[in-house]
Amino acid sequence: MADSVNQSLANNKMVADMLQFPRRTFLLGSLFATIAPAVASAASSSTRLILLGTQGGPNFSLKRGETASMLVINDQPYLIDCGYGTLRALLESGVNYLNIGHVFLTHLHDDHNADLPALLGHQWTQGRIKPTRVFGPYGTDKLVQAVNLYNQANTEIRMVDEARSLQPKAMFAGTVVKAGAEPVAVLRNGDVTITAIENAHYPAEAKAKIPHRSLAYRFDTADRSIVFSGDTAYSDNLVKLAHGADVLVCEAIEKEVYRAIYDKRVANGAYADNPEGVWKHIIGTHSSTEDAGRMAAAAGVKTLVLNHIIPGDIDDSVFIASARKAFGGEIVVGKDQMVL
Ligand SMILES: [Zn+2]
Ligand SMILES: [Zn+2]
């Protein structure tokens, strides 16, 4: 591949050194100033953000799919998370899923990767022959191997019946991104520099028992810098990663409004094994809308895009009022198929 895909682990240090925070933003600004105007209007922008799925999950409705976002950078698609409904949302967005060669998973909760077997399986069946790299935290390599195994019967049948020769395992591989409290380089090519940091989705007690981790990503292109929070409680690391960015795509939950909805669900039989344990997870490992506003303000971003919305069916004004308590910049309440 032309790009220097995760030589990241070899190149991490070099790129991370070059991109030291907090000076990083200014360095990037001056770096890119030579090749593009510092501020580009949306009309002339070569970087488009498309929200494919905006429902906080695991959950989905007919209006909101599970989490997925797309960056189209100089006509190249980069998929961030791949929750249930992503493939259909891609079709609706007009982005050809056969062209997706880079997927970035923030973490391995199923509302962020449920459509990965569908995406990779259909890419292979429909005839993509270039590699698709899936980046993500601990377990991402095994996850992609499992996807290939999930699709193995399909592969075996079609390789015989359709005389095909390319094995999915030769195309699809997962790359584990090891990130801590400082940004690390994930991928860099002529269009984009992608960095990651560990966010605050998993509490210390959980992390002591499991190797799983959760990530936020930053994409710096010639005309924009866009950060994806992933799922996270208030995170100083995320603030560091998002410093000076144009756009922070951040999860948001209206906890008090959602509690009443949650109680009704429990009364109807949901979360029957431990409703208070699940509630503790919900409020302890996610950001309230006000937290999202606080992080956006602390990072000094221009625009806050609320994503992974919970609940997904209340008026935008509720979210805007909560985020506005701390953040004076532009606030956008994300919706499926919104283009920014
Ligand atoms: Zn989630
Ligand atoms: Zn999660």
Q: Please indicate the percent range of residues in DSSP E strands (runs of 2 or more).
A: 15-25%
* Distinct ligands: zinc ion
Spatial extent as radius of gyration: 20 Å
Topology-level CATH name: Metallo-beta-lactamase, Chain A
What class do helices, strands and sheet pairing give?
Answer: alpha/beta
Distance between the termini: 29 Å
* Uncertain stretches of 5 or more adjacent residues: 1-44
Q: How confident is the prediction overall: mean pLDDT?
A: 88
Question: Can you give a write-up of this model?
Answer:
The structure is a single chain. The protein is built from 13 helices and 13 strands. Helix 4 (116-125) packs across helix 5 and helix 12 (289-299) packs across helix 13 (316-324). The protein is of the alpha/beta class and 340 residues long. The protein has one domain: 4-Layer Sandwich (Metallo-beta-lactamase, Chain A), CATH 3.60.15.10. The strands form two sheets. A seven-stranded mixed beta sheet has the order 7-8-9-10-11-12-13. Bound molecules: zinc ion (2 copies). Residues 57, 67, 109, 111-112, 231, 308 line the site of one zinc ion.
Describe the structure using short key phrases.
binds zinc ion, 13 helices, about 350 residues, globular, disordered N terminus, single chain, alpha/beta
Summarize the entry for a quick read:
This protein is 35% helix and 21% strand. With 340 residues, it is α/β, with parallel strands linked by helices. The chain has a single domain, classed as Metallo-beta-lactamase, Chain A (4-Layer Sandwich).
